[in-house]
Amino acid sequence: MFEPRDREAQIEWRVENWRRLNGRKIPFDAEEFRALERRIIAHSGRHDTSDAHARADSSGLARGAELVHVTVPTLVITTPEDPTNPESNSRFLAETLPRSTLVTIDGMGHTIPRAVVPPLAAAILNHIEQEGHCAPGRSISP
C-alpha cells in the first residue's frame, strides 16, 4: 500500500482499489475513477498514499449502547455490495437508533459511481423532506 509510485502508477493503483470496493453488480467505470483521482491529486497537490485510514482508531466501532439516546432523525444507508462494511452493520444502526430510516441502494458497494447518485440523492432528499428539515421545493443555501 505504501510503496512509492510515480503519479500515473499511483492513479492506477487507486483505480484498482476502487474497482475492488465497487462491488460486482454495478459496472465499474475505470475512467470515471481515474478522472476523480486526478482531481483529488490536483486539489491536494500530492499523489502519495495517505495513511489516514491505516491510522484510524477502530475502538470507536465497539460503541453502541449510547446510540439509543440519539434523538436526531437518522438516515442509514446500506450498500449490499460493500466488501468492507457488511449490511449487518447498517441493520444494527437502524435497529439501535430510535429515529432511523434504513434505505438500501441496490448494487452499491463502497464507492459512489454515477450510477448510484440518483437513488442516493433521492434517499437523502426524501429523508430531509420527511423530517421537516426542508419543505419540498425549498432551496438550501450552502
List keywords for this structure.
about 140 residues, mainly alpha, Rossmann fold, two-stranded parallel sheet, 5 helices, globular, disordered C terminus, 10-carbomethoxy-13-deoxycarminomycin esterase
Tell me what the structure shows.
- By secondary structure, this protein is mostly helical.
- It has a single domain, classed as Rossmann fold (3-Layer(aba) Sandwich).
- The protein is 42% helix and 7% strand.
- The protein has five helices and two strands; from the N terminus they run αααβαβα.
- It has helices at 7-22, 30-44, 52-55, 87-96, 117-130; strands at residues 74-78, 100-104.
- The chain has a two-stranded parallel sheet.
- α1 (7-22) crosses α2 (30-44).
- The longest helix has 16 residues, at 7-22.
- Residues 137-142 have low confidence and may be disordered.
Helix/strand layout:
Layout: H1 7-22, H2 30-44, H3 52-55, E1 74-78, H4 87-96, E2 100-104, H5 117-130
Helix pairs in contact: 1-2
Domain Peptidase S33 tripeptidyl aminopeptidase-like C-terminal: 69-112
InterPro entries: AB_hydrolase_fold, Pept_S33_TAP-like_C
Protein name: 10-carbomethoxy-13-deoxycarminomycin esterase
Brief summary:
Helices cover 42% and strands 7% of the residues.
Q: If you consult CATH, what is the topology?
A: Rossmann fold
Number of strands: 2
What is the CATH architecture term?
A: 3-Layer(aba) Sandwich
Rg for CA atoms: 18 Å
What's the end-to-end separation, in Å?
A: 36 Å
